[in-house]
Every structure is written in structure tokens, then in C-alpha cells.
TrEMBL record:
Residues annotated as domain 1-deoxy-D-xylulose 5-phosphate reductoisomerase N-terminal: 4-131
Binding locations of Mn(2+): 149, 151, 220
Superkingdom of source: Bacteria
PANTHER family cross-referenced by the UniProt entry: 1-DEOXY-D-XYLULOSE 5-PHOSPHATE REDUCTOISOMERASE, 1-DEOXY-D-XYLULOSE 5-PHOSPHATE REDUCTOISOMERASE, CHLOROPLASTIC
Cofactor: Mg(2+); Mn(2+)
Name of the protein in its database record: 1-deoxy-D-xylulose 5-phosphate reductoisomerase
GO terms, biological process: isopentenyl diphosphate biosynthetic process, methylerythritol 4-phosphate pathway involved in terpenoid biosynthetic process
Main enzyme class: oxidoreductase
Coiled coil: none
General function of this protein: Catalyzes the NADPH-dependent rearrangement and reduction of 1-deoxy-D-xylulose-5-phosphate (DXP) to 2-C-methyl-D-erythritol 4-phosphate (MEP).
Amino acid sequence: MRSLSIFGATGSIGESTFDLVMRQGGPDAFRTVALTGARNVTRLAEMARALKAELAVTAHEDCLPALREALAGTWTEVAAGPQAIAEAADRPADWTMSAIVGAAGLVPGMRALKHGRTLALANKESLVTAGPLLMATAAAHGATILPVDSEHSAVFQALAGEDASAVERVIITASGGPFRDWTLEQIRDCTVAQAMAHPNWSMGQRISIDSASMFNKALELIETREFFGFAPEMIEAVVHPQSIVHALVGFCDGGVMAHLGPADMRHAIGFALNWPGRGDVPVARIDLAQIASLTFQKPDEERFPALRLAREVMAARGLSGAAFNAAKEIALDHFIAGNIGFLDMAAVVEDALASVSGCETFGKLPRTLEDVLSMDHLARKAADTAAGLRQQKR
Ligand code: NDP
Ligand code: MG
């Protein structure tokens, strides 16, 4: 029986993973080693009961009593706190889903890789903040990382059986989000609710807003660079409002392989769950005649400066990805809290990057997790200061 763990089980990706695992036999087909969540302990306990999980962990100590009560009378152990989540990753599982949101997903993912098994990676922040370290850890322990982000799953699928040295370019698509056709002035005054209203995908709050600002695409450009190892100038993003084509890979003979799929993350999750084979996944099938047209346009870096910042980060590499992601997370917190405007997010990230770029370690590739975490910490402080200044100006 295959064993599995799901980190971030109660989130959008976690729910879709749980759904597929249940459809593929649930506890009759899988031994569930660990499930983790944060605030939503009621749902975490329901999932743990349904999968007969050996361990359920919440990220927050104050949620532990509720989790313990919800799982009373079951054989599921309970625990709380970031350390307990990291320790849950020390328990070997054949297949681990990394779907915690933000930099908090890095440590458990790194620790799961040490078992030399399979990590299904939705947490793109791990690759952005610590790509070289993550890939080296996987290689050192003979572990496999399978990308779950839809664009990266698409590139992975388009590359199957191909010689990577024949690749000329990789194009990932962006829906353009809710503000694709808005003017700069309209975007400046948008609300959190408007930023969350993604036209094609149903996702967690943070990634939905990151999609509206194109910070999500910025992270994904860096993720492409770190996961596949292609040079930055080979990687581009194109706006494709229908979200049917997820990525394209161009080869040296002029051929281009495009990956098409429904805008439903269960395709990419199901691909990772059933890899190296394919399993039946209950997503809508694409009807091209009904869709009628697939359109593409160049992204506008003036309205969406996150893309320009991503290019700068890809060029600088080193610990700039860790700084970029951390600053972005703080800027997003301030936008959600109503302290700064939507366009201030990119300005805060740019200010924070400028502030930490003088730091001696900025341009150096991370050698240890501590390198990454200390840059993350510095950039969070710098972004917090930058956001405070912007807030005063409003
Ligand atoms: P959600 O916000 O829906 O879920 C996040 C999960 O992480 C929840 O289980 C949440 O617990 C938990 N969590 C939140 N904060 C912490 C913390 N500090 N420590 C530990 N656990 C925590 O996110 P998504 O599912 O949308 O995204 C998850 C990851 O997948 C992100 O990295 C995202 O970029 C990536 N991704 C998501 C896609 C999508 O379609 N949603 C597509 C591609 C990639 P709780 O809910 O109990 O509070
Ligand atoms: Mg994506």
C-alpha cells in the first residue's frame, strides 16, 4: 500500500488532493502518514478521520485543543506548531504533497526530500526562495520532485521523452487575472475583493491576489528557471485569457509542444499522484469547437511591474529570490489589511530589494537553509518599513 502525507491539506490544493485520494480508494488504497493545516482544524479532523491518518498537525499551538477534541476517540495523533509540522515531514511517506502557502512550506518540503521519495510540489515559494538548495537536496537523496503548479506540470509533460538540450524556449501562460483589461488608474484603486475575483481559477486568497498583480506569474518565471534549469532569456510569459494552454516548449527544429488542460488543478495534482502512469481524473474535458478561439498577447510590464522585478531576480539569482518572495508576502499582508494600495505592493517589493541588495550574501547562492531564512527575515523587515512609509503617504 502506498503511503502519503499532505502538507496544507485544508487549503485549495490540499482539498483537491484529498478529493483525488478519496476517489482513488482513500484509506483502502493509501496509508496516510500525516495531514497538516493551520486554522481550519474542523476540516483537518474530518480529513484525518476519512483517511485514518496517523498524525494531524496544526500550525498554531492555540488550535491544538480544538484539534485534539475533534479527533478524540480516533487513533490519530495530534500535534501543533511549525516544529511539529517539520517533524511530520521526518516521517517517511512514499508521496508527499507540499501545499502549505508561502515560505512556511520550505522546511517541511526540504525534510520530506531527505527520504528519497516523491515530493509533489505546489509550494512554488520553496523553489523561488531556495531553488538550488531544494534541487541539490533532492539529487543528494535520490528524491523526485514533481511540479504541481499547472504551468510547470505542463512544461514537465511537454518535455517527456525530449532532450533538454534541444529546448530553445519555454513559454508559460497567464490568464491576465481580473485586471487584464483595466487601466493603471483603475488598478490603483481596486479593492481586495476585486483582486480576489479570479476569472478562471478557484484558488486560495493569497495566490488569487498574486494572480491579479502578476506576482504569481513572476514567482512562476523564477520557478521555471530553478526547476528546469533553463537560462532566464529562454523563459517568457504570455497572456492567454482562456487558460486552456498552460505552457509551450519550443525546440531547436522550430517545433513547439503545447500542453492544454482544463482550468482545474486536479489535472496537475492527478498527474503527480499517478506519475509515472496516468490515472482517471474527473475534470471537465476540453471542447475546442466550443471554446472556438485561443488568444495570446504580450504582458504589460508597466501595469504589472512584478514581471520586470522577476527578470531582475532571475538575473541576480543568489538569495534575491528569497528576498523577493519574503517582501512580496509582507506587501500582500499590508494590502489585505488595507494599509497600502494594490500598486504599492510592487513598489514595496522594489524598495525592499533595493534595501537588502547591499547585503553581502544577496548575490550568493544559498548553501544552507539558514542562509535562506536570514535573507527572508531581513527582507521582511525591509518590506515592513517600506510599507509603513507608503502607508504614511496615503
Ligand atoms: P490556501 O491558502 O488555500 O491553503 C494554504 C494551506 O496552508 C492551508 O492548509 C492552510 O491552513 C495552511 N497554512 C497557512 N498558513 C500556514 C503556516 N504558516 N504554516 C503551515 N500551514 C499553513 O493556499 P492554496 O492551496 O491556494 O496554495 C497552496 C500552495 O500551492 C501555494 O504555494 C500556492 O502558490 C500553490 N499553488 C496553488 C494553486 C491553486 O490553484 N490554489 C495553483 C498553483 C500553485 P488553514 O487553511 O487550515 O488555515
Ligand atoms: Mg500556476
